[in-house]
Amino acid sequence: MNAKTASLEGRIRQNWDQLSLHEQRLADVLLAAPGQLAMNTATELAQSAGVSKATATRFFRHIGYESYDAARRQAREMQNSGSPLYIQAAPSASPPDSLMQNHLEKEISNLVNTFRSLESDQMAACVETIAKSRRVVVMGWRHSQSIAMLIYRDLIHVHPDVRLLPRPGDSLAEQLAALGPQDIAICVGLRRRMPALEAAMGALQELNVPMLYISDVLAGKPAKHARWVFRCHTDGSLIFDSTVALSGVCNLLCSLVARSMGKSGSDQLAAIEALHQSLDELE
Predict the structure, then answer these.
(1) Does 97 reside within a domain?
(2) Are 126 and 35 found together in one domain?
(3) Amino acid 82: pLDDT
(4) Could you tell me the residue range of the domain that residue 24 belongs to?
(5) Domain of 65: which CATH number?
(6) CA distances (Å), 226 to each of 46, 186, 248, in order?
(7) Does residue 175 lie within any of the structural domains?
(8) Residues 24, 32: contact at Cβ < 8 Å?
(9) Statement to judge: residues 198 and 256 lie in one domain
(10) Is the pLDDT of residue 87 over 70?
(11) Do 139 and 263 belong together in one domain?
């Protein structure tokens, strides 16, 4: 591991035996909630651990940082990237009702700000392209695939050919090779994106496949490949990112596609419902 790029936790574990007892006390506080480093001054951090500011300054030099500010910059980069370890706050005595209210307010804010940012002409163009496409491919990795699955589960009821990627046991090349301008790819890329997403979108661009990209506000490099980009607000009040705006946008998109497809979508849905009954699949 490169000492200059090693994480805070990695540096602490590598140097634990060389730390003084007071420095180990500070290390325990940081390992419990490393996000404190991004939000607090050296004095505040030292006070939370019950050590002196001088101890805090020595501590960061002992584990390989040039200064406290250098360590703080790295922690903020990790926080901005969406690392849950750095987003979580130190344990607090806030009552559950206060946490619930703050969480609700943040969720509402994310939903309102996201829908305000949507452009109606862009949404209409996406809906029309999806409804008329030969095949819809929905892609996402890690937590992004959870959102991709929401889109897939809705569109499969009204569109005759919808596929969720990546699929176990298949390579991307096997699934993307047959796509072209008459198809569409819906790509979901939330922060902490895997490099595979941009690689796949680059390949789709070479194939002239129109793409809708659904992301967080900081859409990142993949956005340059997409014809349309929906940026959703995802900041959470606690440790995990919010998905309420993403869910709302996906619901709206798929509902509008169903309406746009008209009779063909209704026929598809009716055929599925008939099979559900004949196969006795649902209660």
Answers:
(1) no
(2) no
(3) 66
(4) 8-83
(5) 1.10.10.10
(6) 47, 9, 21
(7) yes
(8) no
(9) yes
(10) no
(11) yes
Query: Minimal CA–CA distance to 248: which of 233, 235, 262, 259?
Result: 233
Tokens, residue 20: 């003084």
Instruction: State how far the alpha carbon of 261 is from the alpha carbons of 216, 254, 258, in Å.
Output: 28, 11, 5
Q: What single string gives the DSSP state of each residue in 1-43?
A: --TTT--HHHHHHHHGGGS-HHHHHHHHHHHH-TTHHHHS-HH
Residue 104: strand pairing partners = none
Contact 138/162 with Cβ under 8 angstroms?
Answer: yes
Are 143 and 267 in a shared domain? yes
User: Rounded to whole angstroms, how far apart are CA atoms 81 and 181?
Assistant: 33
Q: Residue 98: inside a domain, yes or no? A: no
Domains of the chain: total: 2
The answer on 259 and 207 residing in a single domain is: yes
Q: How far is residue 36 CA from its own chain's centroid?
A: 22
The pLDDT tens digits of the residues spanning 120-178 come to: 999 999 999 999 999 999 999 988 999 999 999 999 999 999 999 988 878 888 889 99
Q: In whole angstroms, how far apart are CA 76 and each of 68, 72, 226, 280?
A: 12, 6, 28, 53
Who contacts 165 (Cβ-Cβ below 8 Å, separation ≥6)?
Answer: 137, 138, 139, 172, 175, 200
Q: 113 and 79, same structural domain?
A: no
Same domain, 69 and 107: no
Structure-block tokens of residue 64: 């390989």
Note the helical H segments in 212-243. Answer: none
Q: 252: closest CA among 120, 161, 103? A: 120
96 inside domain: no
